[in-house]
Amino acid sequence: MKFMIALLVMGILTQNFTLAKFLGICPFLGVSKKLNTAVGMSLAVIFVMLLATAVTYPLNMFLEAHDLVYLQTIVFILVIAALVQMVEIVLKKYVKSLYNALGIYLPLITTNCAVLGVVILNIDNISAYSAYGFGFGHAMVSSFAAGAGFMLAMVLFAGVRSRLETADVPKSLEGLPITLIAAAIVSMSFLGFTGIVEGMGLL
Amino acid sequence: MNAILIAVATVAGIGILAGLLLAILSKVMAVPVDETAQAIEEILPGANCGSCGFSGCSGYAAALSSGKTTETGLCNPGGSEVSAKIAELMGLAAADVTPMTAVVLCNGTEDVAERKMVYEGVASCKMAAQLFGGEKSCIYGCLGLGDCVSRCPYHAIKLCGGVAVVDYELCRACGMCVATCPKKLIELIPKNKVSAAVLCKNRDKGVLTMKECKVGCIGCMKCVKTCEYGAVTVESNVAHVDPDKCAACGKCADSCPKHVIEMLQFKA
Fold this sequence. Notes:
The complex is a heterodimer. By secondary structure, chain A is mainly alpha-helical.
């Protein structure tokens, strides 16, 4: 149980995918303009991450059994791409408004490195946390944590950007430059969580 | 050799499986596409302005194709041309759409309008209007910060001497600027004829108006008395021309001591 909480805290705060590992920057900058699209995108990413982990974890066991670990990347990308397409079809049918709001960013989850990252890191974690018996359940928890961390970063940044809209920004920094600077500051603020897992005695 | 075969079979197998699943899913979950609605949407200008009363062009197209409305002339930016095309496609009656244009009813440029302060806040009319009604002494005047300029999908509005000015050629009368202006200064008027327009909305009493702006309407009633067609009225100390009654004789413009009334010339 302690280890589960440790995984959650790590995924959301100390090893936040967007702000500490710098994965999934494209949607982080692209869809964080409005709070509701940011939340919608994050929910889609969490869903895809969970689904992708659920499929790739057993798939990896198959690959290891046949000595095909070198195929990991290509097979995982294939699976993730197919999953995203399925999510897209389902969203188009049942949640048209979210489908319209996400627009191009939904197919872009396919190549969202955060999703591939979470899947591959989960596989790496099996050996890294073998002392804690890292298994399928742990993999699901840590991918949920990664998705929730992505959501936290998106929601926080949507707030920052709505303030930026009305801020008096120097002409040369208007638009993307000031957004990147703001992202860097938010990212630095997350350094403050360093050591929280060890400090709480969770690991 | 065997290792290669297994690798190829694995990737190919996963690929085929995913492809099959997707193919089945796209058939099962297929969303029926309304082809008439799509055709109508292609005819519509695509500004999504909402002047038709539906949620954007796709909303209007869907309403037309599903029979919720039979009026083809609701699209202001499209005009009679679009109405005729839709009517032809749907077998409905074409409607005559009077070409309209937006007009900014303020002439108070920086050199004629007094200022009560220097505003250095966010460059947005909406924001400025909340701070003592804006920079100008006249709280009814154009703030000149360009909320309408950035809103206009046709780039038809420009700032000219601190006042927004509409390019009547480019304006498609979608009405987005009308809804945006915090001072409610913009009106839609027909542009198929010459018409007089009072370029002021100052409702203060004449004495006050004179202090606030050199080109403010003081409600002196001279134009009302001159007009032979009863097109000009004065309400709350400001004159207004009814474009339907206006015969474009130009007498009101000549009589106005403040030169607030202008004959708007639209090219056909």
